[in-house]
Design goal:
single chain, globular
């Protein structure tokens, strides 16, 4: 069987993957909410630190693998690189610009210590989405922390025309071997980082060096491995080489990977390696299920709508938590702290819906279209990575 006769039509919508996006965004929310210390010293926050850290790492890795998968699923051989780059830029940058500006203004409110750290040398790289390339914790996480992942996504988008061309050139019967090679490289990165890089200075919030954290977790070319794995997994499903693993067993494997991840925290090995294979299998299994028309709770209308605003939620959630903590304080009892976090999640969802409706969608309508006189693009699925 060749790629010219796919079993799964890549024009099929993938609502289950859209629904999964909100689960990944909520994982990141849970991570950051835990470290805002709403519980103070009386609650369960210390016991949640390992699971919360793993949840944050898992959510980001999911988006990276998903991005490669969905872009490949919706791509066409005739797509022009400049049209693709324009669509992706207007998908992410208007939201980023709005949230970055809002956080900058908030940092200069009276009494905000963050203003002392908001120098142009530290914040300008984040505006330009190049800060994940800098092995400095204060630059990588300057001002608007979640935007570091967009620095990686920007590299993914720039490389995608070359990556998809290379992956399409691989014979279908060798795609699984290619996927295994990418996984091996992901597992090898922490070993190389610990062997080759200095063990000082230390990260402010993890007992690992800044160099290890940067090389394993933040450096865009390293995270390109996960994106490329998503590309390869999409070609596997499209070409009919999927092994038929169901979504339930794939989620069980993911749960096992998360348990291993939690046990390894805070080792550099925990950040990506334990869950990269299960995430790739979950995404491929969900796409295969959708392409065969099988129902899924993840594809319910409320889940797909939440998935559509998940990119905006990812960008607004940390400012909501940070300034919510400043306004409301900490040291709450466990039930009260959980209620505070739930209320702030509601605020973040409302702001995300507004950002999606008034910034993201209008920008896509205005600037993502091809220039007049060019042929119309082939139909694209609703699912788009953030």
């Amino acid at each position: 069987m060749t790629d010219d006769a796919p079993v799964n039509d890549p024009r099929t919508r993938l609502p289950s993957l859209t629904g999964m996006r909100i689960l990944a965004a909520l994982s990141v929310f849970f991570c950051h909410a835990t470290f805002q210390a709403f519980y103070g010293d009386r609650g369960p926050a210390p016991s949640l630190e390992g699971p919360a850290t793993a949840a944050g790492w898992l959510g980001v890795a999911f988006f990276f693998v998903l991005s490669g998968f969905v872009l490949t699923w919706s791509s066409r051989p005739g797509d022009a690189a400049r049209d693709f780059w324009r669509r992706r830029f207007v998908k992410i940058y208007p939201n980023h610009l709005v949230t970055w500006t809002a956080v900058l203004l908030l940092a200069f409110l009276p009494g905000q210590a963050a203003a002392d750290r908001a120098t142009w040398g530290k914040t300008l790289p984040s505006l330009l989405l190049v800060h994940a390339w800098v092995p400095d914790a204060e630059v990588m996480n300057a001002l608007h922390v979640p935007s570091w992942s967009l620095s990686c996504e920007l590299l993914f988008y720039l490389c995608f025309p070359l990556v998809i061309r290379a992956v399409r050139a691989i014979r279908p019967d060798r795609l699984w071997a290619c996927a295994a090679g990418l996984v091996a490289l992901v597992v090898l990165v922490p070993a190389l980082a610990q062997w080759l890089l200095p063990d000082t200075p230390k990260m402010p919030w993890f007992p690992m060096s800044v160099w290890d954290y940067w090389a394993v977790y933040s450096l865009p070319p390293v995270r390109l491995l996960e994106f490329t794995l998503g590309v390869v997994m999409a070609r596997i499903v499209i070409s009919g080489r999927w092994v038929g693993l169901g979504l339930g067993p794939a989620f069980c494997l993911l749960a096992a990977g998360v348990v291993l991840q939690v046990k390894l925290v805070p080792s550099p090995w925990a950040m990506v390696a334990p869950t990269v294979v299960p995430l790739a299998l979950v995404i491929a299994a969900a796409a295969d299920r959708d392409s065969r028309g099988r129902p899924s709770l993840l594809a319910a209308p409320v889940m797909t709508w939440l998935g559509e605003i998940s990119f905006a939620l990812y960008l607004v959630h940390l400012p909501v938590l940070t300034y919510g903590r400043l306004v409301l304080g900490g040291g709450w009892s466990a039930p009260a702290a959980s209620g505070v976090e739930a209320g702030l999640l509601g605020v973040a969802l409302a702001l995300a819906a507004a950002l999606h409706t008034w910034v993201e969608r209008p920008a896509m309508r205005r600037w993502s279209r091809r220039r007049p006189g060019r042929a119309a693009p082939a139909p694209r699925p609703v699912t788009e990575p953030g």
